[in-house]
Design a protein that fits this description.
Length: 232
Amino acid sequence: MAATDICTRCNGAPEDLLHTLRDCPKAKGIWLKLVHPGKWHIFFSASRLNWLTINLSSNLGFSGNDWDVVFANACWFIWRMRNAEIFYGSRVSYDDPVIAILKLSSDSIRPMNKSIVGGSRIGPSVNRFICWNKPEKGWVKFNVDGVRKDSLSLTACGGLARDSEGRFLTGFVHKLGDGTVLNAELWSMLSALEVARCAGFKKVVIESDCLTAVKLVNDSVQAMHPCSTILS
Ligand SMILES: [Zn+2]
Protein backbone atom coordinates (compact mmCIF):
# COMPACT_ATOMS: atom_id res chain seq x y z
CA MET A 1 0.00 0.00 0.00
CA ALA A 2 1.38 3.44 -0.92
CA ALA A 3 2.23 6.04 1.73
CA THR A 4 0.28 8.78 -0.07
CA ASP A 5 -2.94 8.96 -2.10
CA ILE A 6 -1.32 11.11 -4.81
CA CYS A 7 -1.41 9.50 -8.27
CA THR A 8 2.09 8.14 -8.91
CA ARG A 9 1.57 8.32 -12.68
CA CYS A 10 1.17 12.09 -12.89
CA ASN A 11 1.85 13.33 -9.31
CA GLY A 12 -0.93 15.82 -10.00
CA ALA A 13 -3.87 14.87 -7.77
CA PRO A 14 -5.21 12.29 -5.29
CA GLU A 15 -5.89 9.04 -7.08
CA ASP A 16 -9.65 8.65 -6.57
CA LEU A 17 -11.95 6.83 -8.97
CA LEU A 18 -12.57 9.77 -11.29
CA HIS A 19 -8.91 10.71 -11.42
CA THR A 20 -7.85 7.17 -12.21
CA LEU A 21 -10.45 6.50 -14.88
CA ARG A 22 -11.04 9.95 -16.36
CA ASP A 23 -8.97 12.92 -15.23
CA CYS A 24 -5.44 11.55 -15.02
CA PRO A 25 -3.60 12.85 -18.12
CA LYS A 26 -2.88 9.22 -19.03
CA ALA A 27 -6.62 8.50 -19.17
CA LYS A 28 -7.73 11.88 -20.51
CA GLY A 29 -5.64 11.50 -23.66
CA ILE A 30 -7.61 8.36 -24.50
CA TRP A 31 -11.03 9.86 -23.75
CA LEU A 32 -10.32 12.93 -25.89
CA LYS A 33 -10.09 10.60 -28.89
CA LEU A 34 -13.12 8.46 -27.96
CA VAL A 35 -15.61 11.09 -26.77
CA HIS A 36 -17.23 13.38 -29.35
CA PRO A 37 -15.73 16.92 -28.98
CA GLY A 38 -19.27 18.32 -28.67
CA LYS A 39 -19.74 16.20 -25.52
CA TRP A 40 -16.42 16.93 -23.81
CA HIS A 41 -17.97 19.55 -21.49
CA ILE A 42 -20.52 16.98 -20.18
CA PHE A 43 -18.07 14.11 -20.02
CA PHE A 44 -15.29 15.91 -18.13
CA SER A 45 -17.47 17.87 -15.70
CA ALA A 46 -19.90 15.22 -14.40
CA SER A 47 -19.68 14.00 -10.81
CA ARG A 48 -18.78 10.38 -10.22
CA LEU A 49 -22.25 8.80 -10.14
CA ASN A 50 -23.57 11.09 -12.88
CA TRP A 51 -20.58 10.27 -15.02
CA LEU A 52 -21.37 6.55 -14.85
CA THR A 53 -25.11 7.07 -15.36
CA ILE A 54 -24.73 9.45 -18.33
CA ASN A 55 -22.22 7.25 -20.09
CA LEU A 56 -24.28 4.10 -19.69
CA SER A 57 -27.52 5.75 -20.84
CA SER A 58 -26.55 8.15 -23.66
CA ASN A 59 -24.17 8.28 -26.58
CA LEU A 60 -21.19 10.55 -25.92
CA GLY A 61 -19.09 8.94 -28.62
CA PHE A 62 -19.10 9.14 -32.38
CA SER A 63 -22.10 7.86 -34.34
CA GLY A 64 -22.09 4.16 -35.14
CA ASN A 65 -20.65 3.30 -31.75
CA ASP A 66 -22.41 1.38 -29.00
CA TRP A 67 -21.16 3.95 -26.52
CA ASP A 68 -22.04 2.02 -23.34
CA VAL A 69 -19.90 -0.87 -24.56
CA VAL A 70 -17.03 1.38 -25.68
CA PHE A 71 -17.21 3.27 -22.38
CA ALA A 72 -17.12 0.09 -20.27
CA ASN A 73 -14.26 -1.38 -22.27
CA ALA A 74 -12.33 1.89 -22.09
CA CYS A 75 -12.69 2.02 -18.28
CA TRP A 76 -11.50 -1.55 -18.03
CA PHE A 77 -8.59 -0.92 -20.41
CA ILE A 78 -7.51 2.25 -18.58
CA TRP A 79 -7.67 0.41 -15.24
CA ARG A 80 -5.53 -2.41 -16.64
CA MET A 81 -3.02 0.05 -18.12
CA ARG A 82 -2.76 1.80 -14.77
CA ASN A 83 -2.16 -1.49 -12.92
CA ALA A 84 0.35 -2.71 -15.50
CA GLU A 85 2.30 0.54 -15.27
CA ILE A 86 2.32 0.58 -11.46
CA PHE A 87 3.04 -3.11 -10.91
CA TYR A 88 5.16 -3.94 -13.96
CA GLY A 89 6.64 -0.53 -14.77
CA SER A 90 8.23 0.10 -18.12
CA ARG A 91 7.95 -3.55 -19.16
CA VAL A 92 4.41 -2.87 -20.40
CA SER A 93 3.67 -0.80 -23.47
CA TYR A 94 0.60 -0.39 -25.65
CA ASP A 95 0.83 0.58 -29.31
CA ASP A 96 -2.45 2.48 -29.49
CA PRO A 97 -4.92 2.16 -26.60
CA VAL A 98 -7.74 3.79 -28.62
CA ILE A 99 -7.54 1.22 -31.42
CA ALA A 100 -7.25 -1.58 -28.85
CA ILE A 101 -10.38 -0.33 -27.01
CA LEU A 102 -12.41 -0.03 -30.23
CA LYS A 103 -11.33 -3.52 -31.30
CA LEU A 104 -12.21 -4.93 -27.86
CA SER A 105 -15.61 -3.24 -28.09
CA SER A 106 -16.47 -4.56 -31.54
CA ASP A 107 -15.33 -8.03 -30.44
CA SER A 108 -17.71 -7.93 -27.48
CA ILE A 109 -20.64 -6.46 -29.45
CA ARG A 110 -20.55 -9.32 -31.98
CA PRO A 111 -21.36 -12.14 -29.52
CA MET A 112 -24.02 -9.91 -27.88
CA ASN A 113 -25.74 -9.50 -31.25
CA LYS A 114 -25.78 -13.26 -31.73
CA SER A 115 -28.32 -13.50 -28.91
CA ILE A 116 -30.73 -11.41 -31.01
CA VAL A 117 -33.22 -13.58 -32.91
CA GLY A 118 -35.63 -11.98 -35.39
CA GLY A 119 -34.75 -8.51 -34.13
CA SER A 120 -35.58 -9.07 -30.47
CA ARG A 121 -33.34 -10.39 -27.72
CA ILE A 122 -33.96 -13.78 -26.14
CA GLY A 123 -35.67 -13.09 -22.82
CA PRO A 124 -36.56 -9.67 -21.44
CA SER A 125 -33.77 -7.14 -21.13
CA VAL A 126 -33.55 -5.27 -17.84
CA ASN A 127 -31.38 -2.19 -17.30
CA ARG A 128 -29.92 -2.32 -13.84
CA PHE A 129 -27.39 0.02 -12.27
CA ILE A 130 -25.08 -2.06 -10.12
CA CYS A 131 -23.27 -0.37 -7.27
CA TRP A 132 -22.01 -1.02 -3.78
CA ASN A 133 -24.71 -0.83 -1.12
CA LYS A 134 -24.09 0.33 2.42
CA PRO A 135 -24.82 -2.11 5.25
CA GLU A 136 -27.59 -1.28 7.70
CA LYS A 137 -26.84 1.01 10.65
CA GLY A 138 -24.71 -0.77 13.25
CA TRP A 139 -23.44 -3.35 10.75
CA VAL A 140 -20.04 -3.70 9.11
CA LYS A 141 -19.72 -4.93 5.53
CA PHE A 142 -16.66 -6.79 4.25
CA ASN A 143 -16.11 -6.98 0.50
CA VAL A 144 -13.76 -9.86 -0.18
CA ASP A 145 -12.11 -11.47 -3.16
CA GLY A 146 -9.72 -14.27 -4.03
CA VAL A 147 -7.43 -14.49 -7.06
CA ARG A 148 -5.10 -16.93 -8.76
CA LYS A 149 -2.19 -16.09 -11.06
CA ASP A 150 -1.62 -19.21 -13.17
CA SER A 151 1.79 -18.16 -14.46
CA LEU A 152 3.14 -17.97 -10.89
CA SER A 153 0.98 -20.79 -9.45
CA LEU A 154 0.03 -18.39 -6.67
CA THR A 155 -3.24 -17.49 -5.01
CA ALA A 156 -4.07 -14.59 -2.73
CA CYS A 157 -7.06 -13.05 -1.06
CA GLY A 158 -8.03 -9.67 0.29
CA GLY A 159 -10.90 -7.67 1.64
CA LEU A 160 -11.94 -4.41 3.20
CA ALA A 161 -14.52 -3.43 5.77
CA ARG A 162 -16.78 -0.38 5.66
CA ASP A 163 -19.40 0.94 8.05
CA SER A 164 -22.99 2.00 7.35
CA GLU A 165 -21.75 5.37 6.06
CA GLY A 166 -19.37 3.70 3.63
CA ARG A 167 -16.30 4.71 5.66
CA PHE A 168 -13.23 2.49 5.42
CA LEU A 169 -12.60 0.63 8.71
CA THR A 170 -9.94 -1.94 8.02
CA GLY A 171 -8.63 -4.28 5.35
CA PHE A 172 -6.43 -7.30 4.79
CA VAL A 173 -4.42 -9.11 2.10
CA HIS A 174 -2.98 -12.62 2.32
CA LYS A 175 -0.60 -14.48 0.05
CA LEU A 176 -1.82 -18.09 0.06
CA GLY A 177 0.57 -20.08 -2.13
CA ASP A 178 -0.53 -22.60 -4.74
CA GLY A 179 -4.20 -23.63 -4.85
CA THR A 180 -7.49 -23.11 -6.60
CA VAL A 181 -9.25 -19.78 -6.99
CA LEU A 182 -12.23 -21.25 -5.11
CA ASN A 183 -9.94 -21.98 -2.19
CA ALA A 184 -8.73 -18.36 -2.28
CA GLU A 185 -12.33 -17.10 -2.35
CA LEU A 186 -13.16 -19.18 0.73
CA TRP A 187 -10.00 -17.99 2.49
CA SER A 188 -11.09 -14.41 1.85
CA MET A 189 -14.33 -15.05 3.76
CA LEU A 190 -12.59 -16.87 6.60
CA SER A 191 -9.99 -14.09 6.86
CA ALA A 192 -12.76 -11.49 7.01
CA LEU A 193 -14.33 -13.33 9.95
CA GLU A 194 -10.97 -13.45 11.74
CA VAL A 195 -10.33 -9.75 11.14
CA ALA A 196 -13.88 -8.97 12.33
CA ARG A 197 -13.35 -10.96 15.54
CA CYS A 198 -10.02 -9.24 16.26
CA ALA A 199 -11.55 -5.82 15.58
CA GLY A 200 -14.54 -6.56 17.80
CA PHE A 201 -17.14 -6.21 15.05
CA LYS A 202 -20.31 -7.96 16.23
CA LYS A 203 -22.64 -7.51 13.26
CA VAL A 204 -20.90 -8.41 10.04
CA VAL A 205 -21.99 -8.89 6.43
CA ILE A 206 -19.56 -10.53 4.00
CA GLU A 207 -20.03 -9.81 0.31
CA SER A 208 -18.31 -11.98 -2.29
CA ASP A 209 -18.62 -12.11 -6.09
CA CYS A 210 -18.12 -15.88 -6.12
CA LEU A 211 -21.51 -17.62 -6.12
CA THR A 212 -19.94 -21.07 -5.76
CA ALA A 213 -18.10 -20.00 -2.60
CA VAL A 214 -21.24 -18.37 -1.16
CA LYS A 215 -23.26 -21.53 -1.83
CA LEU A 216 -20.59 -23.71 -0.22
CA VAL A 217 -20.68 -21.56 2.91
CA ASN A 218 -24.48 -21.47 3.08
CA ASP A 219 -25.09 -25.15 2.28
CA SER A 220 -23.95 -28.03 4.42
CA VAL A 221 -20.86 -29.48 2.77
CA GLN A 222 -19.81 -33.11 2.87
CA ALA A 223 -16.53 -34.01 4.56
CA MET A 224 -15.30 -35.38 1.21
CA HIS A 225 -15.35 -31.92 -0.41
CA PRO A 226 -11.78 -30.62 -1.10
CA CYS A 227 -12.65 -27.35 0.64
CA SER A 228 -14.23 -28.96 3.71
CA THR A 229 -11.30 -28.05 5.98
CA ILE A 230 -11.79 -24.32 5.45
CA LEU A 231 -15.58 -24.60 5.55
CA SER A 232 -15.60 -26.46 8.86
ZN1 LIG B 1 -2.69 10.81 -12.43
